[in-house]
Amino acid sequence: MIVSQKAYRRGASLPHSNPFQRLAGLLDGETPGLDPIVMTIGEPQHAIPPFTADVLMDNIDGFRRYPAITGSPEFRGAVAAWLDRRYGLNGMIDADHGVLPLNGSREGLSFGAIAARDQLAKDLDHPVVILPNPFYQTYAAAAHVADAQAVLLDAMPGNGFLPDLDSLDPDLLDRTVAFYIASPTNPEGFAADIPYWQRLITLARKHRFFIFADECYSEIYREVPPPGILEAARAMGSDFSNIIVLNSLSKRSNLAGLRCGFAAGDPDFLKKWARFRGLAAPQVPLPAQAVAVRAYQDEDHVIENRRLYNEKFAVAERLLSPLLGPVTPDAGFFLWLDTGRWGESPAVALDLWRTIGVKVLPGSYLASDQPDGSNPGRNYIRVGLVAPLEKTEMALERLANWFGEKA
Ligand SMILES: Cc1ncc(COP(=O)(O)O)c(C=O)c1O
Hints:
There is one protein chain. With 407 residues, the chain is an alpha/beta fold. Helix content is 41%, strand content 14%. Strand 6, helix 7 and strand 7 form a beta-alpha-beta unit. The longest helix has 25 residues. The N terminus is likely disordered.
């Protein structure tokens, strides 16, 4: 069942105000009950990899040059080799044609839908772009700039927080040019399994659309590495047609400010996209690509990064699960807490700020209202575990006390 359809036309204002601006409005003039602790941020706070400064200095002269839009052969090679190791691709990724550098995955997500629309030439006034709901706000911006109709599919716990693929209308899929999906999901932190990915790939080929698989949280997992869409394609014995995976160093290596990521997958799509990007998009600076080469060759810093997050999730589970049930997601660095018993998420966020000084994001601000007035984020708050352990533990203790007192 399609639960929400919203048409955004070129020239109209962007469909969503920024969740952080909405939160600022909600808390405007409110005084925090205790020393403030901000748990809203999705920006990694752990240390950057120890080699970053040396690699940047060794390649500093690269700032003089305009890089190629397709990146350096070393960059493409390092990414292809990492994908191969991580997903057991058996050499299927061709470094020269299957990888493109991006200024962070966000840049690729923004412009992917336009390229999909142009390449597919489905001869529709307003093709469809499918998004999960809640969603990373850039997906909606991508639908807007592609002059597409954004169709939002609720991601609910009953379906592992993934859009329900079995309920999609074939006519809608025929009009679709781009299907945006995050796995691990954001903000819930659940991972699509191989059969799910394979069902989506089959639909994309049958109905001719491109999948933009946002895997930027792929390395921030608890125990089991989330399966990737390229891995699923390989397991079907197929190539990577209709699949574009996006990832970056922002979460894996705590290098959000480096703005360095990649798109990989369908070589035909990427070749045409590179031509478009050669006119429209900024290239990735060579020193940033050099850091990426080193970062994709190193897993030690990623293992340490995961350990630090997992330590914090263990504290969250210990303090919160007696009150809320299990709280630890498969992956990512957010808690997505069902706090519906205590009220709708903006009211909960406001009370948490007023009484215990903990700033969290109301889930309803990360999702779109449905035509029937429902909102899949309404009963949830998002709590980021990015701060150091001690501070995170202090915030979680305050939250546990608040939940306990109001139980
Ligand atoms: C789900 C999701 N996708 C993509 C991004 C963009 O990441 P970047 O452009 O830094 O790779 C983010 C950043 O927060 C995100 O949360």
